């Protein structure tokens, strides 16, 4: 490989965008806590606090790249995300 062919590759790596760290909450809407299909750049403090009591809530915050798989599991009513979704349907936040 010549130096010429290495330069464009190195330049492309230097200018590549950072990995998308946003997540989407795919669980049911829980009033005062989380709204279904909301995108977060950072998981809200209220949701993190609730996850201390119900850790499965954080499993419903999926990276954007995995969103189609998560929504497909909910639609087909099968898979791990759907199991967490069912648990979250019965969750009531402490007041």
Largest sheet: 3 strands, antiparallel
Shape: globular
Rg calc: 19 Å
Q: Give the overall average pLDDT.
A: 86
- Uncertain spans: 11-16
Class inferred from helices and paired strands? mainly alpha
Q: How many domains, in number, for the residues?
A: 1
Total of DSSP H or I helical runs spanning 4+ residues: 5
Provide the spatial order of strands within the biggest beta sheet. 2-1-3
> What share of residues is helical?
40-55%
Number of strands: 3
Strand fraction:
5-15%
Assembly annotation:
single chain
Present the secondary structure layout.
Layout: H1 3-15, E1 23-25, E2 38-40, H2 45-53, H3 56-59, E3 61-63, H4 67-76, H5 80-89
Antiparallel strand pairs: 1-2, 1-3
Structural features, described:
By secondary structure, the protein is mainly α. It has one domain (20-89). It contains five helices and three strands, in the order αββααβαα. It has helices spanning 3-15, 45-53, 56-59, 67-76, 80-89, and strands spanning 23-25, 38-40, 61-63. A three-stranded antiparallel beta sheet has the order 2-1-3. The radius of gyration is 19 Å and the shape is globular. The termini are far apart.
Short synopsis of the structure:
With 95 residues, the protein is mainly alpha-helical. Helices cover 48% and strands 9% of the residues. It has a three-stranded antiparallel beta sheet.
């Amino acid at each position: 490989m010549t130096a010429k062919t290495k330069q464009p590759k190195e330049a492309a790596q230097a200018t590549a965008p950072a990995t998308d760290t946003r997540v989407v909450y795919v669980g049911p809407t829980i009033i005062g806590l989380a709204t279904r299909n909301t995108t977060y750049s950072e998981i809200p403090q209220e949701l993190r606090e609730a996850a201390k009591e119900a850790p499965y809530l954080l499993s419903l915050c999926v990276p954007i790249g995995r969103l189609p798989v998560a929504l497909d599991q909910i639609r087909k009513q099968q898979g791990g995300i759907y199991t967490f979704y069912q648990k979250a349907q019965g969750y009531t936040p402490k007041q």
